[in-house]
Design goal:
Chain lengths: 298, 317
């Protein structure tokens, strides 16, 4: 097979990532906001992974004797809710749920969006079909998809993640398709074509690795939207079901007794905002770092 | 131009047909037998069969689909299984609430977004830019339902500037109606304003550094005229696109905003229908939102081609 002698450097040259990781890392390091986002992100992930070790109480552990404790009360760092449940412990497990849904949603959109985008970008006849499919999906706002799924099989964490994932597949397809259209015209792909490489081989060996940076950046864009989406669905009762804690459920519960204990509504919101801020800051920095034309940062 | 619009029309029509098929299949995929639900557990097989033929469930699937579309086209959306009210009437009373809220939110978001975007561009590297950038970051990171809760807590209850909940018919009592909708519209419009602000700023920076703007300045045109004639005109294209792209988010946002501020709108109807498994209402709500979404996106595309000459030439030729 003649194809196997394709010089591996061809791939690297066309990558746009150039001498790749070093430059990206350098760009990230020179961006204090991005680094701050990265550190916040690391903390958030650690909290989610080690939730049972960090939380002093179980997320559904009820202390009927001590409801509506103020933040800073001994034993309850952020106070307790109407059932005397520790708000800090519930938030720690809520962060875990947020990231679970976010990760599932990103996974779904990448696993389905990437191949469809690659195929649509590479073969024109497939493009028309895939474009119609994305149009149909886009015709349903994500909340409507969630409403439909909840009506069919009842609200749950999985349904929330699937609804969010489906809603984000079209944007992923469009990003990957655009990248494919661009990469398809580059010299190393044309080179591979003259060496009789098959379409499938070109797509997976040449186009996909070079579209990776765009896919990663898009994933960091989707993640915070998915985290907010999960909170929103759970807030409305269409997502995670009590007693499993979710930042969205905590907010919706807290709204019932907001005048008695406003802090119960404030902390979960700060939690959601911090997770999203971390992803947005880090994602922006990553986008700058991947962009070879970006010269604004040294 | 005409050809571009025709292509868009054709595509939208196709999307609409496919979407209606999805909704039709989705309703068939719902758990439970509608005939059994209507007749009750003790119904005899004959009664069930009678109800099935009455509902048209004994016909072939394609025949059922065309019957379904035909009914929809005649505006017959069925009756709510929970209250027995015609779905059409339910929508007639709830939809205006949501429309007023959304339009109000879009107007506020566009005004605030463009204003902040211009401020950020004019004061690059100084504190007004940081302030507006900070606003944009908060608007994008903070979920609006949390902002809504905080707004009720501080602006409505503590300061007493706005009512915490409730709705007054805008047509019957415009001033009072808009006053009641102000806080919800501000909350709903926040993230949209943040996105518009960022894009306006970016497009202004790009436009203001182009040669033709430099020429205009060299000709002695005043700063204000350059800003309005060149800078803002170009960002208008961006704003039209953004509003189109953010429409889905706006619909979801409206549902939550209605829930927080206890507004009797389309979102409340939707959620109530889901929790009580009121399938005719769910089906109608999904269809109407999808239909309006497609139509508005089509309008945005057409509007886009009107404000941006490059699109109508390049488009599909």
């Amino acid at each position: 097979m003649a194809i196997t002698v394709v010089d591996p450097r061809i791939n690297v040259d066309g990558a746009g990532l150039g001498s790749g990781r070093g430059r990206i890392w350098k760009s990230l390091r020179g961006n204090p906001l991005g680094m701050a986002g990265g550190i916040m992100l690391a903390v958030v992930v650690l909290v989610a992974v080690f939730a049972p070790l960090i939380a002093p109480y179980g997320p559904a552990e009820v202390h009927f004797a001590t409801p509506f404790q103020k933040p800073g009360t001994v034993g309850f760092l952020l106070g307790t809710d109407d059932l005397g449940r520790d708000i800090f412990s519930r938030m720690v497990f809520g962060v875990r749920a947020s990231l679970e849904v976010g990760a599932l949603c990103v996974l779904l959109s990448v696993l389905i969006g990437t191949p469809l985008g690659l195929l649509a970008g590479y073969w024109k006849w497939l493009d028309a079909i895939v474009s119609r499919l994305t149009d149909v999906t886009l015709a349903f706002p994500f909340l409507i998809i969630a409403v439909g799924l909840a009506a069919i099989s009842g609200p749950s964490l999985t349904n929330a993640a699937v609804a969010l994932g489906i809603a984000h597949i079209p944007t992923m397809i469009r990003v990957v398709r655009g990248e494919t259209l661009r990469i398809k015209e580059s010299d190393f792909v044309l080179g591979a074509k003259t060496m009789d490489a098959s379409g499938v081989r070109i797509i997976f060996q040449h186009v996909m690795p070079n579209a990776a940076s765009a896919i990663i950046v898009q994933a960091t864009v989707i993640m915070p939207v998915a985290v907010i989406g999960e909170a929103l669905l759970s807030f409305l009762g269409l997502g995670i079901q009590p007693p499993t804690p979710s930042l969205g459920i905590m907010l919706s519960d807290a709204q019932q007794y907001i005048f008695r204990s406003p802090t119960a509504a404030i902390f979960p919101g700060i939690g959601i905002a911090l997770i999203c801020l971390a992803f947005n800051l880090f994602g922006d920095a990553l986008r700058d770092a991947f962009d070879p034309t970006n010269t604004s940062r040294k | 131009m005409i050809r571009y619009i025709f292509t868009k029309l054709w595509q939208s029509a196709l999307t609409l047909v496919l979407a209606s098929v999805v909704v039709f299949i989705g309703v068939r995929a719902l758990p439970g037998d509608p005939a059994l639900a209507m007749a009750g557990e003790e119904a005899s097989p004959e009664q069930l069969a009678a109800i099935r033929s009455q509902l048209g469930l004994d016909q072939s699937i394609p025949a059922q689909y065309f019957a379904f579309v035909g009914k929809m086209l005649h505006g017959d959306l069925g009756n709510s299984t929970r209250t027995g009210t015609a779905v059409r009437d339910l929508i007639g009373t709830t939809l205006p609430v949501t429309l007023w809220l959304s339009v109000y939110a879009i107007v506020v978001a566009v005004l605030v977004g463009i204003l902040f975007g211009v401020i950020a561009e004019r004061f690059r590297g100084r504190w007004p830019e940081w302030l507006t950038n900070g606003f944009a970051l908060i608007g994008l990171s903070v979920p609006n339902f949390w902002l809504g809760i905080l707004a009720i807590l501080y602006l409505a209850v503590t300061l007493g500037w706005f009512p915490a909940s409730g709705y007054v018919d805008v047509i019957a009592n415009p001033l009072r109606g808009l006053y009641y909708l102000t806080l919800p519209a501000l909350i709903l419009g926040t993230s949209l304003a943040a996105v518009i602000m960022r894009q306006t700023r970016a497009s202004m920076i790009e436009t203001m550094s182009t040669d033709y703007v430099r020429t205009a300045k060299a000709k002695g045109l005043g700063g204000g005229r350059v800003l309005f004639r060149y800078g803002l005109r170009n960002s208008l294209i961006v704003v039209v696109t953004i509003v189109g792209l953010q429409l889905g988010g706006l619909i979801s946002g409206a549902v939550v905003t209605e829930r927080i501020f206890a507004l009797p709108g389309f979102g409340k109807l939707t959620l109530d229908a889901v929790f009580t498994r009121d399938y005719p209402v769910i089906q109608a709500v999904v269809l109407i939102i999808t239909l309006s979404y497609i139509v508005i996106n089509l309008a945005v595309d057409v509007l886009y081609s009107v404000v941006n000459p490059r699109i109508r030439v390049g488009g599909n030729n």
